[in-house]
Amino acid sequence: MTKKILYVYGGPEFHPTEKGGKLLDQILKADGRYQLEMTTDLDAFTRLPGGQYAAVVLYTTGFHDDLTPERERGLTDFVRNGGGFIGIHSAADSFRGSQAYLDMLNGEFLTHPEHHEFKISIADHDHYLTTRMPDFSVYDEMYHLQKFDPAKCTILAQTQWQGKQMPLAYARSYGNGRVVYLANGHTAEVWKHPEFRKLLVRAVAWSGGAELSDKTIRCGLLGYGPAFNMGRGHAGWISDTPGMKPVAMCDASPARVEAAKKELPALEGYFTRLDDMLQMPELDLVVDILPHNLHAPTALQCLNAGKNVILEKPFCITIPEANEMIETARRKGVMLSLFHNRRWDGDYLTIHDILGRGLIGDIFHIECGGGSYSHPGFWWRSDKTISGGVMYDWGAHFIDWVLNLVPSKVAQVTGDFQKRVWNAVSSEDHGEAWIRFENGVTADYWTSSIAALSRPKWLILGTKGAMRCDWKDEIELATVANGIRQDSTVKVTLPGYGSVQYYRNIADHLLMGEELIVKPEQARRVIGVIDAAQRSSQLGHSVTIAEGCE
Predict the structure, then answer these.
(1) Is residue 467 part of a domain?
(2) Can you tell me the distance from the alpha carbon of 411 to that of 549, in angstroms, rounded to the nearest whole number?
(3) What is the pTM of this model?
């Protein structure tokens, strides 16, 4: 059952109080646990003690004397009796004629410097709001407070200003209720930042009574092959995630089991049969690292045993397999996700940032991919019956990237798969998927082992500019967004690979009920595009994508 949250906003337009509420509504709808009601009517405070709401979110400016005794009593009684209160940014510059309100908030606006970028440092990693959160930077208005008593709250995040630590997020008890204050929230950049959004959701949850779980997610590794050391890699990423722990592994090869015993000596179980690992008590999650053709049957076995499942990419090989896994996970009430860790690659996040700033306008065409002229090797990845074909490796990442860059359904796909040179293996030498979206955007991805010259990793054309980048830490940017053409090189400074961020979200989802970022339905869309490209190549014309993969 969803909980109702009241969002009260208003005041001068230089603070985005209404826009913030609309964004919070989107965030909470995606989360799925809360229903937001927005109002500018301050008399709503008088109706709070009726028990209709779990928490109040306040983003107002001014109203110095507008918290009448009835409104003040309604708000403070609501919180004292167990309700939640979240003040955002200029909530500290609101109702300053009410001492009771300021006492509850534990602070009052003093001043702020000009907007600038500054670092937010997490001060307490053991609190509900900030567990597993990293430090991050924002471009915003830095609020300085007066009448703030650190002894009356838990400081969760802070920043430095001229030798002093300024509180940016704190939490406290107020009677039987809970109060959170988040000092940021003036700029659009802050509201777009995933860590600030996480703080918002957690503030709503914690103020409404949520507590940190003391459960540890016990994980098993299915597949410990030597290629890329992915078994050991996943074990390390899991171990580095608070609230998660690798406890078992399984591989059909006794030699790989022995390798795991040497590399991961602290595991509780080592198995050669999946059935045996699934009987291990209190096993919560299985990470499936097997070859592609084994993903669906083994994942279904785990899902039917009531285990949460993470699959290494790709999701599977066929759409019926994807559909069956998604339906089984839904029926069993367990999580199913895909290790799309590359969504946190530095160049990809920088591309998203450039797009969000409007520097190239609206995307209308994307080219991406790459290849080389080299033998694909004699192993399972070059065997089409096992791997699915040439597009199921890097193609899984690139197509996922493209689908997340274009906010539209897929209208049709044209595919081209060619076998011309490396006939000693069964996987194709070259594969291409040309995608047309319903909004008119087109995307062309190819991967090849017979490309003596390759294309850029990314070429993205927009209505006000373009981007081009290769496999290095810079992006060529041309923009006419300001009315004149400007050419520049944007350095990629963000870290890549995303394994830490991915597993943080898995823990946050399973232990705190937060939104799962990589959903199985998204993974199915990637398989849908590959399937459509293969069908198109066989038929010699464009095709529509399968139902549910649009």
Answers:
(1) yes
(2) 10
(3) 0.95
